[in-house]
Amino acid sequence: MLRRAGPSLRHFLLERKSSAGYSSYSSEVKMSRPVQARRLEGIDKNIWVEFVKLATTYSTVNLGQGFPDFSPPDFLKEAFVRALSGENHMLHQYTCAFGHPPLVKILAQFFGKLLGRDLDPMTNVMVTVGAYQALFCCFQAFVDEGDEVIIIEPFFDCYEPMVKMAGGMPVFVPLRPKAPKDGKLMSSADWQLDPAELASKFSERTKAIVLNSPNNPLGKVFSREELELIADLCVKHDILCISDEVYEWLVYDGKKHIRIASLQGMWDRTLIIGSAGKTFSATGWKVGWTVGPNQLLQHLRTVHQNSVYHCATVAQEAVAQGFQRELELYGKPESYFIQLPNELQQKRDWLVQSLDAVGMKPIVPEGTYFLVADISKFKSDVPDVPDSDEPYDARFAKWMVKNKGLAAIPLSAFYCGAHKNNYNHFIRFCFAKEEATLKAANDILQKWKREKTSP
């Protein structure tokens, strides 16, 4: 039997540990070198972390965070149960990394019908962990250090930090409100791009533009003319369009959602992002997708396979069955894609009337399940603080949830730092809620109005 020469490693470590010098040294020395990657600098704060905590702590009624408090449709839940408890035990295991075959197949059929082109399930569709991961893959796949990405304000708040994390430079262009005529309530359609201002944001460094239609938070549905303006500039400057269309089925008043990829010259440069959470009122399932040309999606697949790699099989199976049903019922009254916007339009109208009655002037949304309201008449309740670093609407929203029990999100959260005070007298409400929730919100508002008018 061979033995090692000299004392054992265990003996050596025990001797070191027993020495007073070692004990003192180990208790005092801490890691001093910086460990945070530079790409995380300046993006550590998140509006949802703060306001979700406030809503959980104080709110009686939460119209802040964007999720329905009603159930997904029965047919979708039943599909999930079948997938979960059925005899196909492989639904509990890994499926194809870039999308469960039944889901990518039906998505290719469905969106091929909408776009008027043949889509290959394996190369033109990729399933992601919600639309959020689809966005992340897009920015990581296409944005290099120094690339500029045009973002239309107000914007869903993750666009800016995701661009920065990829090393890019966000360039912002605002939708500017125009006063409505004849004393009517403002509509989200009254918020428009200035064509010359938009054109001035394009340069040789521009890599992409992010389009969100229907828009969160405004609910704006971009018209064909507006989309053609954006498309012409994309073609002229040979840039990508990252088209966030998660609210594509939630449009009201006879409006139509137009897919920018269907416009001339746009298919080869557009990444369409969708969400089963918004489509089927199941935000917690986190199933999203990207549709686009293979020469673009191949790069998203590289990011996906080296990060998340795989999405939950059972949820993908249930969503596939949901889309199969909707393809068969497309355009018919029984379709969930027709029933849901009809129901949400009623909820929207109800909240519009409720807010208008108490003096919060709503901006009537053409789509999504969000509604922005002007709080200028309530400044007597929460006086402005000159030279404050915090936008007025943020302080107002915090005060409202703490003192009135009603949660909403400040519109300034959807603007870049330099522009947060430009539109700081608006707050965003979510109306994708049960009637009882909206009634409870109305009760709070009516009580508030009585308190303001009482001597």
How does this structure look, described?
It is a single chain. With 455 residues, the protein is an alpha/beta fold. It is built from 15 helices and 15 strands. It has helices at residues 9-18, 20-28, 47-58, 74-85, 101-115, 130-142, 159-165, 195-200, 224-237, 276-279, 294-305, 313-328, 336-358, 392-403, 435-453; strands at residues 61-62, 125-128, 148-153, 169-174, 176-177, 191-192, 206-212, 240-244, 270-275, 288-291, 361-363, 370-374, 406-407, 409-410, 426-430. The strands form four sheets. It has a seven-stranded mixed β-sheet, with helices on both faces. It has a four-stranded antiparallel β-sheet with strand order 11-12-15-14, covered by helices on one side. α4 crosses α12, α5 runs parallel beside α12 and α6 (130-142) runs parallel beside α7 (159-165). The chain is globular and about 70 Å long. It starts with 8 loop residues before the first helix and ends with a helix.
